[in-house]
Fold these 2 entries.
Entry 1:
Amino acid sequence: MSNEAPSRRHFLGGTAAGLIGTAIEPARAQLAPSDARAAPAQAEPFYGPHQGGILTPMQDSLYFAAFDLSATTRADLIALLKSWTIAAARLTAGQPAEPGRQSTDAPPLDTGEALGLDPSRLTITFGFGPDMFTLNGADRYGLGAQRPAALVDLPRFAGDELVAGQCGGALCIQACANDPQIAFHAIRQLARIGYGQATLKWVQTGFSTANKTNGTPRNLMGFKDGTMNPTAAAAPPIVWAGAEGPAWMAGGTYMVTRRIRIALEHWDRMKIAFQEQTFGRHKTTGAPLGGTNEFEPANFTATDANGDYIIPETAHIRLAAPVNNGGAAILRRSYSYNDGANFVAERWPPWHQGIEYDSGLFFQAFQQDPRTGFIKLFARMSKIDALNQFTTHVGSAVFACPPGTREGGFIGQTLFTAA
Amino acid sequence: MSNEAPSRRHFLGGTAAGLIGTAIEPARAQLAPSDARAAPAQAEPFYGPHQGGILTPMQDSLYFAAFDLSATTRADLIALLKSWTIAAARLTAGQPAEPGRQSTDAPPLDTGEALGLDPSRLTITFGFGPDMFTLNGADRYGLGAQRPAALVDLPRFAGDELVAGQCGGALCIQACANDPQIAFHAIRQLARIGYGQATLKWVQTGFSTANKTNGTPRNLMGFKDGTMNPTAAAAPPIVWAGAEGPAWMAGGTYMVTRRIRIALEHWDRMKIAFQEQTFGRHKTTGAPLGGTNEFEPANFTATDANGDYIIPETAHIRLAAPVNNGGAAILRRSYSYNDGANFVAERWPPWHQGIEYDSGLFFQAFQQDPRTGFIKLFARMSKIDALNQFTTHVGSAVFACPPGTREGGFIGQTLFTAA
């Protein structure tokens, strides 16, 4: 925290002096010289070899925004990324979004709803979408040749019911924090700073109890979600790009997002036993069917007295297991979402129409290469996973998340020095 | 907590035994007889003279649902309210929604996503809307004569842009908790239990930092929100209905909800001084203009050197103050909302079209009588409050929240014994 960076608790200081047109002196952070650079409580680091919000233990809240880019020149895009980098570093440290003196005769350098709150473990993660490299064939920023092969256009999967307004984007910003107001505040500041250069395309809120649950958190289907996720120790080789791709992405990763609406009303009327066969796990313990412990290996060959697999052929965990996919693995970092309720009409027995939850899972997968990660895993699952009876993928996107940056650098800098 | 009520942490017990068709014995709560009725940590009481979620200190998350009633008889409606009362009491205590033995050969008695989580200070508050008393002139439940005069149809206010799908309802359930998954879980269980008798009409999520802020929390406009709210000591006579209305509502209250979309993008481009004149308060301190302390009385007569009021005639706090409204007062218990973003086109200078936040404030007011509370206060504000330049009321509803109930009773019981 530098000397000219007031902490958020002191932003604007005493505005008794804040009469119209009077520039006011921001109060300095109340820090002794010896701890002038100490991170505040509940702050996650922003600078580093990798971006935060990927291997960072999940926070309670997500606010995710995909943007279209209206910046017309490469210089404008670089300037935007520089401004965003500075603001993101400040926000994660609990400081007002923009540096400088706040005058009451000027619009806010920070919109204020985070004043008095700690950073709540805020992380801000940037990703570059295909449209940043070329858009309708135009290479606006001279980056087309640098598009990584791994930043692949996702194929159409069986069952996809994608809504254009919830897909794609030239750039994304993921804000995660232990408070939804902090996550919203972060995206809002960055969108505000990017006015005229980047425009919102779609957004998504999410929540998770990972932070509060003793063990694996549950999704809205009531099952433990993430039992097979790689541990922090095992994740890095799965997640981080390295020498196999372009040098500018070394230390970065590829993010796939899927907005998965879940027919909760239907799911809730299924027998527990059916739910368990759908997942391949017991609901309460999370143990694979036939087992007793959540973390024991699933026995995919065990059969019952009739010779049927105890973990059915269409069970979710059978299809998702790396062991059944040539070792393909991803890091999942998914948030449940609740976007209210809207009208649904079903024209087949048992017939139903009415208001249903627009809720489900905002699935996020991070991997070194989506072609050997999410795409490989989901191609078969999309066809035969028993879960598909209750899930519909309505949003989809893929982003290249560049490596982290150092103080003084900016997010994506390696791309622009490469191109 | 009765003996047959397993705590949520033990629901379904070990399901190693939970094979298809096997009824399993729920594990008992691990409670010694002496503390068998002790409330778990983070539990708010459900039973009592008043409903929870009104004077209860605000929680972090709101999930609010308005329902249409499809119950065809009075007996069906009473049965629904009895089932809901039992479930609501169980949920607030952190128990599975429905009592009884869970068989794996049956749909869930509880959908499971709250397993392993504490009650997170969950409160569940029921309200009865005009449509419960009569609907299109039909008195379905023999309750028409009991509709309180205070359960008034709100007038059309200046600037209203109400969307039918976000208004009204025969009944509402408000769930507040310190975790959004717990609030969602509660509404989901009650909607599930009410299947066939009550159907979702509209829903609303919300969040607040009241619980985390040292002092008055801030809304999405960055200002402290609730400075003038009555204290816990002052609130009861403002909130609770008494001898002035029907006996069945004594100890109840009237809730007005307004879904207020805020043009945050515009607000964020206003000068701080303009924002402060709009509210009539300093942004950082929350002090009334001309003052230095948040809680000092606003001086509505003070003028500047030009003879203009320091707190402008159209400032929000001038118009909202009880002292300027013949003492009219309400208890506000409002949550910010973030429902994503959608397309907005503005056809006047400075011209703008694009994706804007669908965010703002889900305003809730509780009072003894809306005619002398919200309606009186808002009638003038809706015409001249400077805030109106940035706010649009798109949802509206009014509900009679009956008094609380005792164990063995049910919510609304006094209404049915009166009618």
Entry 2:
Amino acid sequence: MFLKNCWYVAALDHELTDGKLLNRTVLGEHLLLYRGESGRVNVLNDRCPHRGALLSQGRLEGDGVRCMYHGIKYDGSGKCTQIPGQDMIPPKLRVRSYPVLERGHFVWVWMGDAAKADPASILDLRYLEDSNWKGIPAYLHYDANYLLIVDNLSDFSHLAFVHTKTLGGSEEYAYVSKPSVIERLENGFRVERWHWDSDPPPFHQKVIPDKTAKVDRRNIAWMTVPGIFNMETLFAPAGQGKQTAAAGGAKEYRNCQFMTPETERTTHFFWSYLNNFEGEDSTISRSLLDSLIEGFMEDKAIIERQQKTLEEDPSFQMLGILADAPLAHFRRVLDRLINAEQNSGATQPAEVRPTTAAG
Amino acid sequence: MFLKNCWYVAALDHELTDGKLLNRTVLGEHLLLYRGESGRVNVLNDRCPHRGALLSQGRLEGDGVRCMYHGIKYDGSGKCTQIPGQDMIPPKLRVRSYPVLERGHFVWVWMGDAAKADPASILDLRYLEDSNWKGIPAYLHYDANYLLIVDNLSDFSHLAFVHTKTLGGSEEYAYVSKPSVIERLENGFRVERWHWDSDPPPFHQKVIPDKTAKVDRRNIAWMTVPGIFNMETLFAPAGQGKQTAAAGGAKEYRNCQFMTPETERTTHFFWSYLNNFEGEDSTISRSLLDSLIEGFMEDKAIIERQQKTLEEDPSFQMLGILADAPLAHFRRVLDRLINAEQNSGATQPAEVRPTTAAG
Amino acid sequence: MFLKNCWYVAALDHELTDGKLLNRTVLGEHLLLYRGESGRVNVLNDRCPHRGALLSQGRLEGDGVRCMYHGIKYDGSGKCTQIPGQDMIPPKLRVRSYPVLERGHFVWVWMGDAAKADPASILDLRYLEDSNWKGIPAYLHYDANYLLIVDNLSDFSHLAFVHTKTLGGSEEYAYVSKPSVIERLENGFRVERWHWDSDPPPFHQKVIPDKTAKVDRRNIAWMTVPGIFNMETLFAPAGQGKQTAAAGGAKEYRNCQFMTPETERTTHFFWSYLNNFEGEDSTISRSLLDSLIEGFMEDKAIIERQQKTLEEDPSFQMLGILADAPLAHFRRVLDRLINAEQNSGATQPAEVRPTTAAG
């Protein structure tokens, strides 16, 4: 059961070049995403209503697509415009289309009631469109439910043990630092955590000249429904952390991660990790991309095994510790929203249900 | 649910040479097919009733087979003839045998009530045994229900889009040609379709000297239960199509395709594509074999993906277009026959049900 | 459904060296086996009760183990001893531990009620700890239910057909030899079988100087619950079989095989095959190891196919022959014990059921 009336990141803009007909499953539905000749991105259900052939195995024609089984053509809105050998087009022969928007290299799709799709409800992450922030958007596929990734990002003490030599830096992080603020929001939570006078973690060391000087490290992270993480990270010279906003001299990162359910047991994981201190050369961005992938692979090994464990024994119930308060709040928020949506009965457009020729 | 009281192609004759004990699943049942020393082909259930070991992992002995787990031997009728270390043979210890016939390189098996097996009910495709028709019988395995292949063969407009550069020739085929006859039969349908004054399709070009002269192309196709397709194809010089039967000068093909369910979701696909214009050299037959495989692989990509789509969303209902009339008729015919057979309660032989030693 | 209140072989001692955290599934439960720094072997449930991460992906610390997701530490008894960043340890946060014992290179685990674990109930196979008997303990994994392997070992006529050229020696074995004693035991059965004046089987030929002289071959085999096979094998010069115990001149083997269910459809198969006639050089042991693996692979091909056959058609019921009397008795004994245990309701320790943080 997923939240439907909201925006999900479904693709990176560079995936939709050269007329690519991209098949991607989102919330268990096969989508076809493509950029038509007009430049506009369209999202259709990737299944020809005639015999169920994939439209992504078809052919781009203008802003439409032709199924290459029997040649039936649809425009970008999903309307059938041609049946070879047949003049009359039955109105029922149409493909569902989905609202779609592009923001800062990410393609967002609305999976619920199209009438409710509100562009303003896309999370406004300005650094993604600000040329002062540099980063390389990227993608990983997870064989795990998206909430296990949300959980992972909800407790940063895992940095100490999972990412000691990559994103974390030391096991000390789990013992001496704690969230200084945990704010429960209506659509998620916000956490602030300082680590004073610490060694710079490996991913940061790789992109700064002075690799040994102690730093004050601050993370301010938001997790919001349906599964969007963004974080502001600051490294200040040790002792200057509290004054940094005013005093400068710090290095900062912006980090967004989008967990989009592919199915109940798999996830599309999009992210961008940006910095504000490199010049035109992308060396720092590329180093950070490598570091993040290295760290995410560490998460992936644990999270995908968790998924298997939960599937093997569905009766297993996790036992909370204090650090789980944010993730527990997030799951309650999400459950409440999903229940409300299901009870309103308005998650799906009134869909045309064709009768079968073979019935 | 399959039609049981009918003949299915289960093997090619060359598969049963050198004492091969062939395991092949048909309608979900494991069959053992082999040619005994007498030359006669036998078909047994491929499971020793003692402990369930496969007889196809056993040893051919004369016209019988010995299970190589504990050495129990069965004759070609499935009767147990020896239990090592035990004198008395319990009458229940026998293996089900299936009626079997050979016709024109194909081995046919009767899957229902053996008492009803009528050799005369095998479709009489004389060109398969006529030395004027040359061809190479062949086999492909499909990860798809057999009816999706039947559907594919029921609407030739797919030639235009799936097989443009192989078996079809042009997209024009879907726009300018139509069935001129659609005949509903009690056991299937018959379709006749002309394409006048057209370029010869690639598979035909490869085997004729004049590759550019326009042709009149005629296909007369029959689809009959449980899933047998056969077709007479004629290419006449453009303008002579209608007079050809009398005037000669045409090149003709005969085409049979047998869709035999392996399971509900997989199919054995046997075929032979024959011509009447090559000499003793088999160059033309081999070129046609390659062309057909090339074309069938195009179908396979679409049909196997259809199968996945239907499995992923069993609620999906196909929406018919006018061209689906033949396939819709065929499915109605088949459903009616299966229902009648199920209601008669006579699909299975009264089978010996042994009690277990471990019970 | 498995027998729980009994000892199962779960590992070989050499698997637990160098701090290895061994994950092994037994009776469907994920176990973590490891040798702590004190030298003692511990067995814990291999799942951190916090978020379900595998402890075998964690880190050995002393005699305990630390989960490397959020750093929670457990001692060898499963008690939580540290939560980084949290002072109070909830008593519910503990991992189940399992009684464990080492005997003659094999590690035994008790899967049921720990209060009932009785070391004296481990089958006393003295040759495993007797330096006069030489052998190399080994392991194979089976994709088959353990009882199919028990069945296999319960009727030695299969030696004649499955192992003709390896462990058996001739098909004659099935025709001229029979069990001379079949003793029904409360916990299994005992079978004695002679093969007089026979050629030595290939595995034996390879390790004796005179490869052609006829032998009297005697096997005395016990099968006991839950799935333990052991056998005394004697080869005497032909004609001296009956006097051997007194007269000497024979060569003897001891053979134990442990079938431990991994899941309902897979099995851990441990064994050791020992002889009393090699010196310090291990040539004979290594030859016998190779011969046994060669023979077991022959069994595996048949047994794993049996498993598939039974899964494909759960309605299939095996039909007994006379030679199945021992295996039928064994299954009755085991069924009776499992039923008694289930009805007593005492198979599982009263387990701590944590509430979820995310609930």
